[in-house]
From TrEMBL:
Chain ranges of the Four-carbon acid sugar kinase nucleotide binding domain: 254-411
Reported function: Catalyzes the ATP-dependent phosphorylation of 3-oxo-tetronate to 3-oxo-tetronate 4-phosphate.
Annotated keywords: ATP-binding, Carbohydrate metabolism, Kinase, Nucleotide-binding, Transferase
Keyword hit for Nucleotide-binding: yes
MF (Gene Ontology): ATP binding; kinase activity
Family, as annotated: Belongs to the four-carbon acid sugar kinase family.
Lineage start: Bacteria, Bacillati, Actinomycetota, Actinomycetes, Micrococcales
SUPFAM superfamilies the UniProt entry points to: YgbK-like (SSF142764)
Domain Four-carbon acid sugar kinase N-terminal per the UniProt entry, residue ranges: 6-232
Name of the protein this chain belongs to: 3-oxo-tetronate kinase
Known EC number: 2.7.1.217
Reactions mediated catalytically: 3-dehydro-L-erythronate + ATP = 3-dehydro-4-O-phospho-L-erythronate + ADP + H(+); 3-dehydro-D-erythronate + ATP = 3-dehydro-4-O-phospho-D-erythronate + ADP + H(+)
Natural source organism: Diaminobutyricimonas aerilata
């Protein structure tokens, strides 16, 4: 194969790792670049992922970063562009899935069409008649209705995307998918829309969609969660063997949690070691609070056991902090504090293995560590691969965990698969 079969623009770093880990597990060499690329990308990989932090920022900025990433991916020879968004379609009322999809479509030409689905059956995400289900609940009845930054209250994705996009949004219903690839191609054509969302209930449906894409006449922008990317990876033959992960020296272990997700709340509750609480209201009210937390983290890390620093809280408590501080300031305080703790822990306390829970949180931590690329390794759980980052010559193992992913005991068991 010449050049990467897939160039991915991911709207957060945990989503990038989710997709990269899933594709790598299928035997493809996969590289992850952090932030909008300035130089050339690694054109040798089968799949190149650019991890942005564009899910909740201003839509114009999200578009600018995403278009820059897409251009770099096309320059690297990517055969197809893939817009990775969350399997729960996390977005604000202003976007950013729609504005970014509109801009990427424009990059591909006047008659381009976007075809996508957030369905990721392995994670319990399915789409039926345009409605997104999280396990056995509609999106709007799942815990995502209370997400701290992107509360999802409408399960009808055609309606959600239409409100974010200047283009028409159409649906390929499950009935067409069940008939096979050529029925999907016909349904895409007759949808007469620039953006087409496709129903999928299982991996077999995703394989049908992946097969159909080859027969669509127009240039195609792909979109979705890790599920459709995995189906594309199953069709592409691995061309380049993945290099083994470099060894990370032994060191201390730290878990940082800024996720507001239900599963992360369970993981925090199940953690058996020392837990240090990070409270945005305390940080806002006391200029010494962060230094005190850094000192407490150092002290707790002095033993050999893993330590957890957590801002994760019940939705009511998060809402109280947001009401008092504003949503952005509350999030910024938590993200900045956890990022500073990460840097301090690596530079001063000998931490070499770090689990970070939450996409926005992971983006802030990865940026503060100054990592530009991630080498993707083994999965600690579906959608959650270990990665290795280089911080000024020091290798650090990172598990950047999507909020709702991983078993309840992940913060205890994940170390077993760490590099
Ligand atoms: N106790 C809290 N109060 C207010 N905001 C919080 C609190 N804990 C976390 N946050 C913010 O909520 C957001 C959670 O998003 P993210 O890290 O993507 O995880 P997830 O998507 O799993 O909830 C982050 O911006 C984080 O800083
Ligand atoms: O597609 C998914 O569900 C994940 O890859 C993802 O993007 C999750 O985002 P966070 O929960 O914000 O980490």
């Amino acid at each position: 194969m010449s050049g990467p079969f897939l160039g991915v623009i991911a709207d957060d770093v945990t989503g990038a790792c989710d997709l990269a880990g899933t594709v790598a597990e299928l035997g493809h060499s996969t590289s992850v670049h952090l932030g909008a690329p300035h130089g050339d990308l690694d054109a040798d990989a089968d799949c190149i992922v650019v991890a942005l932090k564009t899910r909740t920022i201003d839509p114009d900025d999200a578009v600018a970063h995403s278009v820059a990433a897409a251009r770099a991916l096309l320059d690297a020879g990517a055969a197809r562009l893939y817009q990775k968004y969350c399997s729960t379609f996390d977005s604000t009322p202003r976007g950013n899935i729609g504005p970014v999809a509109d801009a990427l479509l424009a990059l591909l030409g006047r008659d381009a069409v976007s075809i996508g689905t957030p369905a990721t059956p392995q994670a319990g995400r399915t789409q039926y008649l345009g409605h997104l289900f999280v396990h056995d609940r509609l999106l709007s009845e799942s815990s995502l209705r209370d997400h701290p930054l992107t509360p999802m209250r409408d399960p009808d994705l055609v309606r959600v995307l239409s409100a974010q996009s200047a283009h028409r949004v159409g649906l390929v219903p499950h009935a067409a998918v069940r008939w096979g690839p050529s029925a999907v191609v016909d349904a895409v054509r007759s949808a007469s829309a620039e953006h087409v969302l496709v129903d999928a209930l299982d991996d077999g449906d995703l394989d049908v969609i992946a097969a159909a894409i080859d027969d669509v006449d127009s240039p195609v922008l792909l979109g979705g969660g890790a599920g459709l990317a995995a189906a594309l990876a199953r069709r592409a033959l691995p061309a380049t063997a993945a290099a083994p992960l470099p060894a990370v020296e032994p060191g201390r272990r730290l878990v940082l949690s800024g996720s507001g997700s239900e599963r992360t709340r369970e993981q925090v509750a199940a953690f058996a070691g020392t837990v240090l609480r990070l409270d945005p209201l305390a940080l806002a009210g006391d200029p010494d609070a962060l230094d005190a937390l850094l000192a407490a983290t150092d002290e707790a890390l002095a033993g050999d056991a893993a330590v957890l620093v957590s801002a994760t809280d019940e939705p009511d408590a998060v809402r109280r902090a947001q009401t008092e501080l504003g949503v952005e300031r509350a999030a910024g305080l938590v993200e900045d504090a956890l990022a500073r703790i990460a840097v301090h822990a690596v530079d001063r306390s000998g931490v070499r293995r770090l689990i970070v829970a939450g996409g926005e949180t992971s983006g802030a931590v990865a940026a503060a560590l100054g990592a530009t690329t991630l080498r993707i390794g083994r999965l600690a759980a579906p959608g959650v691969p270990w990665a290795v980052a280089d911080r000024e010559g020091v290798l650090v193992a990172l598990l950047l965990k999507s909020g709702n992913f991983g078993g309840r005991d992940l913060f205890t068991t994940a170390w077993e698969s760490a590099p």
